[in-house]
Design goal:
GO biological process, one term: carboxylic acid metabolic process
Helix content: under 10%
InterPro entries: Fumarylacetoacetase-like_C, Fumarylacetoacetase_C_sf
Number of helices: 4
Distance between the termini: 26 Å
Keywords: Isomerase, Metal-binding
GO molecular function, one term: isomerase activity
Number of strands: 20
CATH superfamily of the largest domain: Fumarylacetoacetase-like, C-terminal domain
Largest sheet: 7 strands, mixed
CATH topology of the largest domain: Fumarylacetoacetate hydrolase, domain 2
Protein name: 2-hydroxyhepta-2,4-diene-1,7-dioate isomerase
CATH architecture of the largest domain: Alpha-Beta Complex
Structural class: mainly beta
Number of domains: 2
Length: 257
């Protein structure tokens, strides 16, 4: 069963079941137009992996890493399925990067590869939006990767057994396929990534690991619709507009208190 976090018509935050054309909670069923879909988790952090597909490393003219390259996105970066996202003002290039997201189910540290199944709650889709203007000129990528709403994710938390080892990942821009690969093309597997991260960092329930993007990255423009589909997980859809974020589009993006 794929789970979805949503705000019902009364304003209450619920966790329900994703069904065709709607959301089911207890004995109620809501149409998607009547609810606000929220990010599928409320993480303390999003840990991202860079250059984890060989073809993507080649298109960026980068050397293959000998261990997972890690960086962080902060909670302000969250956005949800269906949100209209305002592109940062006065930036020449904001790129899409479709990625498999791993959602952690329990607090963990020093997890071996053989134990990772015990700490994974499920999977989701993550679009790792990247501000190339600033990423190119700063070392730690705070401006490049953690600007507001730079981590749209969702629409659901799919159970671990829904994801095949060779699940297809495809990103479409205005209906045109831009990224197409399978997750078994990753340089470092999910078990390897979790083992590496937890050597030095405690992961909390709800934390997300974005596992890297395939080749085909490119810029987003005003009016674009981006769809990220991962086989067995679902399809994340967002529209983009070129205006300064005011806090009044879609929902407030802040974690529920």
């Amino acid at each position: 069963m794929a789970r979805v976090r949503f705000r019902d018509p009364s304003g209450s935050t619920r966790i329900g079941e994703w069904v065709d054309g709607g959301v089911a909670f207890a004995t109620e069923r809501f149409d998607l137009d009547d609810v606000t879909v929220l990010p599928p988790t409320d993480p303390s952090k999003v840990v991202c992996v860079g250059l984890n597909y060989q073809a993507h490393a080649e298109e960026t003219d980068s050397e293959l890493p000998d261990r997972p390259l890690l960086f962080l996105k902060t909670p302000n970066a969250l956005a949800a399925h269906g949100d209209t996202i305002a592109l940062p003002k006065d930036k020449e290039r904001i790129d899409y990067e479709g990625e498999l997201g791993v959602v952690i189910g329990e607090q963990c540290r020093n997890v071996s590869r053989a134990e990772v199944d015990d700490v994974i709650a499920g999977y989701t889709c993550v679009n790792d939006l990247s501000n190339r203007d600033d990423q190119r000129v700063e070392q730690n990528w705070v401006r490049g990767k953690s600007f507001d709403n730079s981590a749209p994710m969702g629409p659901v938390l799919a159970p671990p057994d829904a994801l095949a080892d060779d699940a297809a990942i495809e990103l479409r821009q205005n209906g045109e396929v831009k990224q197409s690969s399978t997750i078994d093309d990753m340089i470092f597997s999910v078990p390897e990534i979790i083992e590496e991260i937890t050597k030095l960092m405690t992961l909390e329930p709800g934390d997300v690991i974005a596992t890297g993007t395939p080749s085909g990255i490119g810029p987003i423009s005003d009016g674009d619709t981006i769809e990220l589909e991962i086989e067995g997980v679902g399809t994340l859809v967002n529209d983009f507009v070129a205006k300064e974020f005011t806090g009044d589009t879609a929902h407030d993006f802040m974690p529920d208190q």
